[in-house]
Amino acid sequence: MSGNAYDVIIIGSGPGGYVTAIRSAQLGFKTAIVEREHMGGICLNWGCIPTKALLRSAEIYHYMQHGKDYGLSAEGVSFDAAAVVKRSRGVSGQLNGGIGFLMKKNKVDIIWGEAKLTKPGEIAVGPSSKDAMQPQHPTPKGVKGHGSYSAKHIIVATGAKPRVIPGLEPDKENIWTYFEAMVPEKMPKSSSLWVPARSVSSLHPSTKQWALM
Ligand SMILES: Cc1cc2nc3c(=O)[nH]c(=O)nc-3n(C[C@H](O)[C@H](O)[C@H](O)COP(=O)(O)OP(=O)(O)OC[C@H]3O[C@@H](n4cnc5c(N)ncnc54)[C@H](O)[C@@H]3O)c2cc1C
């Protein structure tokens, strides 16, 4: 099998893609995963993980405000939105790096770029047609680059993206998607914020709570 030929290629390194890649490699298939933006997909970079990190800060702030109820005292309790966001990005970055490590450990090649299906069993990987959301975590080391790759099996695990309603484009001010929600420059007034969100109504009650904050 040549260097660019695989048993299995997975497009997209979100929870759908990276878990599949690990299992495929464990079963003895020569496996590669293609990613154009961020290892771990939306969940690790802009969804499940950074939201829970933000929530944790909100939870601790809430406890500190209500210390008296528990016989504790804390004065001058306040928050620094930039530091809260920085911590959340740090947690996300740590796990993002962990996925790169897991790929290496399981001998899954990472191909960095945007995949397009060109014919059955073949993909072309080139530059991303999408502007990467900022800030980005570093690209994993030792990735394979743009080019043509083939596989007996190609699995598409490219996830979803927020649908922008014409006339209600995200503006970082009053209209957010989950991308803007993860890196706010300041806390919005809850009455002025509109988050057209499907995913924040997902499984976790805590996520809903955050959406209502
Ligand atoms: C704010 C928020 C909070 C959430 N909280 C939770 C939670 O608490 N619990 C929970 O279970 N779920 C949660 N989710 C949902 C969860 O993030 C998604 O269900 C999950 O990320 C879907 O995984 P996936 O692998 O299908 O796709 P994604 O995570 O979207 O990954 C797809 C990957 O494919 C890449 N890609 C796309 N096209 C190409 C291409 N052509 N070439 C190369 N790469 C490509 C993308 O860059 C991306 O990295 C949340 C989502 C959001 C937005």
Number of strands: 6
Shape type: elongated
Bound molecules: flavin-adenine dinucleotide
| The CATH class | Alpha Beta
Please outline the major beta sheet: 6 strands, mixed
| Total of domains | 1
N-to-C series of helices and strands: EHEHHHEEEEHH
CATH superfamily: FAD/NAD(P)-binding domain
Structural class: alpha/beta
What number is the mean pLDDT? 89
CATH architecture descriptor text: 3-Layer(bba) Sandwich
Helix content: 25-40%
Distance between the termini: 54 Å
What is the topology, as strand order, of the major beta sheet? 3-2-1-6-5-4
Number of continuous helical runs: 6
Rg, nearest Å: 20 Å
Give the low-pLDDT segments. Answer: 199-213
In the CATH scheme, what's the topology name? FAD/NAD(P)-binding domain
Strand content: 15-25%
Give a nutshell description of this structure.
The chain is α/β, with parallel strands linked by helices and 213 residues long. The chain is built from 6 helices and 6 strands. The N and C termini lie far apart (54 Å).
